[in-house]
Amino acid sequence: MITKIKVPSPGESITEVEISAWLVKNGDYVNKGQIIAEIDSDKATLEISAKESGKITLMVEKGEKIKIGDVLCLIDSSEKIPSPASKKILKEKNISIESIQGTGKHGRITKKDCILHLEEKKTPFIRSKKITPLSSLRRKISERLVYVKNQTASLTTFNEVNMLEILMIRKKYKDIFKKKHGVNLGFMSFFTLSCVRALKLYPDINAMINGEEKINFEYYDSAILGMHKIMERPVVVNGSIEIQPMMYLALSYDHRIIDGKESVGFLVSVKEAIEDPIKFFMEGNEENISKILEL
């Protein structure tokens, strides 16, 4: 709705006034009761206030003389006026002002109105999915993992091992080993020897709980040794920082039967054998490598 703001009479015998000051700019949003202009007459200076809230359109210029009863300005109370913050969003996002319902005072469009409008316009993200039946092997593995989880108190202990010595031995003897056995010389052989030694020191790694009894086996039963990728990392060697081929070891075990002492000790035993294979595998003499590798 358009509301006309007319020049009031400042007193008898006065037929015209002069616009001494506009207190708002053309196109501003004004609130009902807000002082928008001052007019001068021969007898007094009057303040003009807005009769409605809305967008103002000035009809005369400052300093211009106008007759009593003439229209000073128009106020469009139906006009949607954005706040400065929302105006910036409307421009950046190229949003039509007509598409937003203002919730601010007197229907003014606020920043929150713009944000809510943008959220409503977003295309909902739908994740695609593909359903594939599990193989019988995977189902059995899943069942066993859940069973083990429910029947044991699983815990994992970590350590790291320097693979430099094993890498050097492997590099030195791999061709002879392959010529003799027809297969590559891998790391698993050395870890197997290390685990055999460690299991002799910590036999409960090979045990399990059956009711109120402990059963020791001749094979690995209560723990799993995980060997991670070999990666070069900075380590301290004799007080100096050097880049060495390091591997993380992870021992997951049933904590009901294996305590921290045994798990840590087992990993340390594996670690020291891998890091000093000549001492622990070859009785301190590398010439015994032929016996170990069956060359």
From TrEMBL:
Q: Which GO terms describe its biological process?
A: tricarboxylic acid cycle
Cite the PROSITE patterns for this sequence: BIOTINYL_LIPOYL, PSBD
Q: What is its EC number?
A: 2.3.1.-
The record's InterPro entries line, in alphabetical order, gives:
2-oxoacid_dehydrogenase, 2-oxoacid_DH_actylTfrase, Biotin_lipoyl, CAT-like_dom_sf, E3-bd_dom_sf, PSBD, Single_hybrid_motif
Q: Report the GO molecular function annotations.
A: dihydrolipoyllysine-residue succinyltransferase activity
Looking at the record's lineage, which domain of life comes first? Bacteria
Q: Does the keyword Acyltransferase apply?
A: yes
Stretch forming the signal peptide: none
* Pathway assigned to this chain's UniProt record: Amino-acid degradation; L-lysine degradation via saccharopine pathway; glutaryl-CoA from L-lysine: step 6/6
Q: Which reaction does it catalyse?
A: N(6)-[(R)-dihydrolipoyl]-L-lysyl-[protein] + succinyl-CoA = N(6)-[(R)-S(8)-succinyldihydrolipoyl]-L-lysyl-[protein] + CoA
> Where does the record place the Lipoyl-binding domain?
2-76
Please state every residue range assigned to the domain named Peripheral subunit-binding (PSBD). 81-118
Q: Which cofactor does it need?
A: (R)-lipoate
Keyword Acyltransferase among UniProt keywords = yes
Pfam families xrefs: 2-oxoacid_dh, Biotin_lipoyl, E3_binding
Keywords of the record: Acyltransferase, Lipoyl, Transferase, Tricarboxylic acid cycle
Q: Cellular component per GO? A: cytosol
The record's family statement is: Belongs to the 2-oxoacid dehydrogenase family.
Chain's role:
E2 component of the 2-oxoglutarate dehydrogenase (OGDH) complex which catalyzes the second step in the conversion of 2-oxoglutarate to succinyl-CoA and CO(2).
This chain's protein is named Dihydrolipoamide acetyltransferase component of pyruvate dehydrogenase complex
| Species of provenance | Blattabacterium sp. (Gyna capucina)
